[in-house]
Amino acid sequence: MIADPNSFSPLNASGVSANTVSAMLYTTLLYQDEDNTTTGGLASEYELDPNGGTLTIRDGATCADGTEITPTVVADSLQAFVENSRAKEIVFGPGDPSFTPDDAAGTLSIELEQPWADVERGLTLTETGIVCPAGLEDLEATAAGEVEGAFSGAYTLTANQPGVTIDFALRESGYTFPEYATPVEGVPADKVTFAIMADYNAMANGLLTDTLDYATLVGESKSRVAGEEGFETSIYPATAMFVMFNQREGMPMADADTRRAVAQAISREAFNDAATDGEGEILSSYVPSEVACAYTEDDAVIPQDAEAASEVLDGLEISLTGTQSTGPNGAGNSYIAQALGEAGAEVDLRNLDNTTWATELDSKPESWDVTVMSLLNMSRTQYGGLSQITGSSPEDGGRNSTGVKREDIQEKVDAAMAETDEAARCGIYEEIQKELLQDAAIVPLSTLPAQPSTAEGFSIRQVNGTVSMMTLRITG
Fold first, then answer.
1. pTM > 0.85
2. Which residue stretches belong to region Disordered (predicted)?
3. What's the half-sphere exposure (Cβ side, CA atoms, 13 Å) at 100?
4. Distances in Å between the alpha carbon of 292 and those of 203, 289, 295, 426?
5. 218-226 long-range CB contacts below 8 Å, 24 or more apart?
């Protein structure tokens, strides 16, 4: 694990580490399956459409303290998610959903205030993991990992040494694993220990010296393990990387011409070389090409023009922040700083660990002007990316770090979410992506290829471009 999680609660999880931990500790109603489908988790049956639907809660499910997970328990947890999580709009849209549990029938009905086509995919997000009653009674202690009764998932937290290790133990009963179309071979581990390692080469060393059984590698560390006898590896686009701007009133990037100048200073190809050694997919949007309705043409992308960029950026002070996982030791961030510096800007670059970066991005908006977003789009949906640049800001409980709501874009999103024809929906999303590109709301860069790597006797599976911790197994 690249950094300590910011929380042990799915309600305020942010970043790769926290989402990994939440997947271990909390079950979700649904899970993503192959070919962009979903499968049951806590829900044994479900019928959902853009207006909501009904889910049957699986018999025999319990919390870690033995409390039965009834439809009422699920409804209370989802209501807490609505009230506390910045991912609420990804799942249920901007309106207020209503939850009607029927404990006698074992069902939960969800009614959305306005149509939201992504609700089924949204209910697979780790942030929607069911927090049990004991956890809801003390959200602060739950976030600290101090309420064992909060857990609804297959594992419980047994120890946490910040900066060192996090230990989990498999529960004896009361949990379920997803019912994947292709069954997962092997058995779940009775105990799982995550080592906190801020360097991917250190992870590769751990694999090669038999001190680690699994790690997801990026950068040059991938080649050290790929092809080595005794290891299984694969590649997937872990994140979509793009430049994002703090557009709050009074900030320098509130000006569209300044943002366009930043775009003109940057070469996507040079960034890709720096961040991924040229292995990433060059992007034309905020999502990679395998996401439905992704814009993949270059027509709307602002072309590089260093001379034009310097006319605007010369002498401008820019605070640039980014995660160290943007290439080896934040090499992608360093390239952006160099490109802006060559255009005459005075750049203050801060390369931060992933958890600190994700936290500061939203909690300290005064601290940054430009960031290289490394977007972990767990839902693999258009709005999973759009929610970072449109809709509610963190100050209002949302994910939009730019601070500008873009109501015109939101109106188009609402139309797309209500559209039942896929081609027509993609047409709307194409308009949205082109408009954001021309306004320099973002500067698309590349994907970050990642390599899940398992030692002999262990396995893990990618599902729709993300690694599912629920598929981690001992196979030998």
1. yes
2. 386-405
3. 8
4. 33, 8, 9, 8
5. 218/276, 218/325, 218/327, 218/448, 218/449, 218/450, 218/451, 219/276, 219/277, 219/327, 219/328, 219/331, 220/277, 220/328, 222/449, 222/451, 222/453, 225/451, 225/453, 226/451, 226/453
Query: Which superfamily does 10-195 belong to?
Result: Periplasmic binding protein-like II (3.40.190.10)
CA 426 to chain centre: 22
Strand 231-233, strand 442-455: pairing: antiparallel
Asked if 327 and 445 touch (Cβ cutoff 8 Å), the reply is no
Give the 3-state secondary structure of residue 386: helix
Looking at this protein, which amino acid is placed at residue 228? Answer: E
The tokens of 191 are what?
A: 């105990």
Q: Degrees (nearest 5) of the Cα angle 435, 438, 443?
A: 105
Nearest-5° Cα angle at 123, 117 to 126? 135
48: which strand partners? 53
d(CA 294, CA 283): 10
> Residue 376: its pLDDT value, please?
85
Q: Spell out the domain ranges in the chain.
A: 10-195, 237-449
User: How confident is the model at residue 135, as a pLDDT?
Assistant: 98
Q: Write out the two tokens for 464.
A: 């729709």
Extract the residue ranges of the chain whose pLDDT is less than 50.
none
In this predicted model, what pLDDT tens digit does every residue of 394-436 receive, in sequence order?
888 888 999 999 999 999 999 999 998 999 999 999 999 999 9
255-441-253 Cα angle (round to 5): 30
d(CA 398, CA 457): 42
Query: If one looks up domain 237-449 in CATH, what number appears?
Result: 3.10.105.10
